[in-house]
Specification:
The chain has about 250 residues and is of the alpha/beta class. It has eight helices and twelve strands. The chain has a domain at about 1-80 and about 215-250: 3-Layer(aba) Sandwich (Rossmann fold), CATH 3.40.50. About 35% of the residues lie in helices and about 30% in strands. The strands form three sheets. The chain has a six-stranded mixed sheet, with helices on both faces. Strands 2-1-4-5 form a four-stranded antiparallel sheet, covered by helices on one side. About 35% of the residues are buried.
């Protein structure tokens, strides 16, 4: 029986910053329609690995394949064009702009009158409201500034945006950090919603219990090395914590 080709395959990724070895030959895969928890302590190399995947950094060694094709993204814009959306902890939302404007940030809809081009605010408002409602996100008014939203609502907009614009891979960097219990649960539901719509998800977090609820598989990094790769049925949250703790002490 042939194994299905992974959506993402990173092979032997090495990255050094001066004398600091951030990544030491890391292999990382994400299957199609799979949620992968990327776990490890501070300084484990999680963010560096993801920044290499999306073209923010270039690897010193190693290869990256997306949908079976070798790729080399020179910027996050290139990765986005291929269907990789990243939602960073700071969300990259513009506080003073409306929900709808943030939803279409970098992809604004316009119309022309003669030689002049105008933002199609009415259409953007309509689509943003429909999409967010469709995935179960209630917003009071899509003209409301993002600065008035809670952390969970901001995460919901960012995830909804990725789903709407046809992302194939959604990368979430600490999506539940600083959220209430209720908001955390809503974000986890949105992660499962993204999977139900065919997306693959990389969920980077320190909170093993949060990601354990939704992930299919866990990749563990410590001090720039991969120290484990387990399917959910193979490990408990405590097992994962024990492995990370053991590797931290051994380093």
């Amino acid at each position: 029986m042939m194994m299905e080709m992974p959506l993402v395959e990173m092979k032997g990724i090495v990255k050094n910053f001066g004398r600091v070895q951030a990544l030491r030959g890391v292999d990382f895969t994400v299957g199609k329609n799979e949620i992968v928890g990327l776990l490890g302590d501070n300084g484990a190399g999680k963010s560096t690995l993801i920044k290499i995947l999306v073209g923010f950094y270039q690897p010193d060694e190693g290869e990256i394949y997306f949908e079976g094709k070798k790729v080399s993204f020179s910027s996050p814009k290139d990765a986005r064009a291929m269907g990789i959306e990243t939602v960073y902890q700071d969300l990259a939302l513009v506080e003073l702009m409306s929900i709808a404007r943030n939803f279409f940030l970098g992809r604004e809809l316009t119309y022309k009158i003669g030689p002049f081009e105008f933002l199609d605010k009415r259409r953007m408002n309509k689509i943003a409201k429909e999409v967010l409602t469709d995935i179960g996100v209630r917003v009071r008014d899509v003209n409301e500034a993002v600065s008035f939203l809670s952390g969970g609502e901001r995460q919901a907009i960012a995830i909804g945006r990725a789903i709407h614009f046809g992302a194939k891979l959604l990368i979430l960097d600490e999506p539940t950090a600083a959220l209430s219990i209720k908001e955390t649960q809503r974000v986890l539901e949105l992660v499962l919603e993204a999977k139900s719509r065919g997306l693959s998800v990389v969920f980077i977090t320190h909170n093993i219990y949060h990601v354990y609820e939704v992930a299919d598989r866990f990749t563990l990094l410590e001090h720039g090395k991969k120290v484990g790769d387990f399917r959910k049925e193979e490990v408990t949250p405590q097992d994962i914590m024990n492995i990370i703790s053991r590797e931290t002490k051994a380093a």
